[in-house]
Amino acid sequence: MNDLESILKRLDNLETHQSLRALATAYAVACDEHDINRLADLFARDAVFCSPNGAMVSTGRESIREMFSAILKTRGPGFHWTHDVHATIDPQNSDRATGLVYSHAETTPNGVTSLAAMKYKDSYVREDGVWRFSRREINFFYYVPATKYNKGLNQTNRVFLEGVWHPADFPESLDSWKRFEAGEWR
């Protein structure tokens, strides 16, 4: 690889990382603004959106559009923000990448003010020069009504959906967490 090729590759990597951060932010903004068309356009044509608890599962851009339309009909105002966006570009295919995005949200499902902390496990694809989600998996650390925040964080069941507590998606399910709890870190 000559100097120019090396510079162009590094420039593409920098632009890709910035584009993926912008994609994560655009998702948060589209959710908050209930902009379904903008939200759907952030996903590849054959994208998958899923959650370990099975509450949100959809395949294909149009199906994802319908899923979010139904979800956002139950939501009033909300505010999502992303923190860390860690992306890794596929060394074999610069049009593919994976990422981990940490996020928080304040939402109002069915009029109940709620707080959430989550991380997204993402796969990305560059389609026609535009980065989109090819897979987005939402994992909840907690999702609780604001009035149950103190109680909710002190238990394994930290996800409150439709009036029922569910196990959080992490960290208790992580192998590293299990090894630590078993004392295997020594």
List keywords for this structure.
single chain; 186 residues; Nuclear Transport Factor 2, Chain: A; six-stranded mixed sheet; two-stranded antiparallel ribbon; 5 helices
Helix content: 25-40%
Mean pLDDT: 94
Q: Largest sheet, described in full?
A: 6 strands, mixed
Question: In whole angstroms, how far apart are the ends?
Answer: 44 Å
Strands, total number: 8
Architecture per CATH nomenclature, i.e. the level-2 architecture: Roll
What is the N-to-C order of secondary-structure elements (H for helix, E for strand)? Answer: HHEEHEEEEHEEH
Instruction: Specify the CATH class.
Output: Alpha Beta
The largest beta-sheet arranges its strands as 2-1-6-5-4-3
The percentage of residues in β strands lies in: 35-45%
Low-confidence stretches: none
Determine the structural class based on helices, strands and strand pairing. Answer: alpha+beta
- Indicate the radius of gyration in whole angstroms: 18 Å
Global geometry:
globular
| Number of H/I helices | 5
User: In the CATH scheme, what's the topology name?
Assistant: Nuclear Transport Factor 2, Chain: A
> Structurally, how many domains make up the residues?
1
